[in-house]
From TrEMBL:
Protein name: DsbA family oxidoreductase
InterPro entries in the record: DSBA-like_thioredoxin_dom, Thioredoxin-like_sf
Ranges where the DSBA-like thioredoxin domain occurs: 7-208
Residue ranges the record marks as coiled coil: none
Highest rank taxon of the organism: Bacteria
Length: 217
């Protein structure tokens, strides 16, 4: 019987707070020494589900969506880069960077779950987009990431043209939206309690410790 704490992490691969939050969660789990007592499943969420295939310039995007100026964006990215350093993750923000469609990345993450490679693929997608500045909507880039993860590239990319695989991802996204998940990262613990946003290491430790204590009752 699987008696692990199940963590559903709802996130998008172009969400900087998602990698910050995960790295803090990972640190909490490591410091508590409970790696074998936790099961992580990455769940899909598209920040921009209607993003066209060509994507959108990041400065145009933040102005349109958030009303942010270029100066606002630069301050925000400088802060994010500093937070990245704290969790040993490199953010490489630059003018000309594009916000891209992430649906196919989520389809591949569901495929990777079958082989126990979901977290590894997720990390490589974060690195590809944020650290290396690559377009994770481009199938050639996705194929490169899949290859680095040790998965079968032909089988994985073939999934992207399968109607049932695309519909499955859309159903999963709808499930979480219908569960009132409106922002990411969101972590659902054992399908019962929820934490929104990138919390501190200490907050994650407290929640995990409480769940471990409940298991022992």
């Amino acid at each position: 019987m699987n008696n692990k704490i199940k963590l559903d992490i709802i996130s998008d691969v172009v969400c900087p707070w998602c990698i910050i939050g995960y790295r803090r969660l990972e640190q909490a789990i490591s410091e508590m020494g409970i790696q074998d007592q936790v099961e992580i499943v990455w769940q899909p969420f598209e920040l921009n589900p209607d993003m066209p295939q060509e994507g959108e310039d990041i400065l145009d995007h933040v102005k349109r969506k958030y009303g942010s100026s270029p100066e606002d964006w630069k301050r925000s990215q400088s802060n994010m880069a500093n937070l990245g350093e704290e969790v040993e993750f490199t953010f490489n923000f630059f003018e000309g960077k594009r916000i891209v469609n992430t649906r196919e990345a989520h389809i591949l993450l569901d495929y990777a779950k079958e082989f126990g490679k979901q977290t590894e693929l997720k990390m490589r997608l974060f690195e590809s987009y944020f650290s290396e500045g690559k377009d994770v909507s481009d199938r050639q880039i996705l194929a490169e990431v899949v290859l680095k993860t040790g998965l079968n590239v032909d089988d994985a990319i073939a999934k992207l043209d399968q109607v049932d695989a695309r519909e499955k991802t859309l159903r999963q996204e709808s499930f979480w939206r219908n569960a009132d998940i409106t922002s990411v990262p969101t972590i659902v613990f054992n399908r019962s309690s929820t934490l929104n946003g990138a919390q501190s290491v200490d907050v994650y430790k407290k929640v995990l410790a409480d769940l471990l204590e409940q298991k022992e009752l």
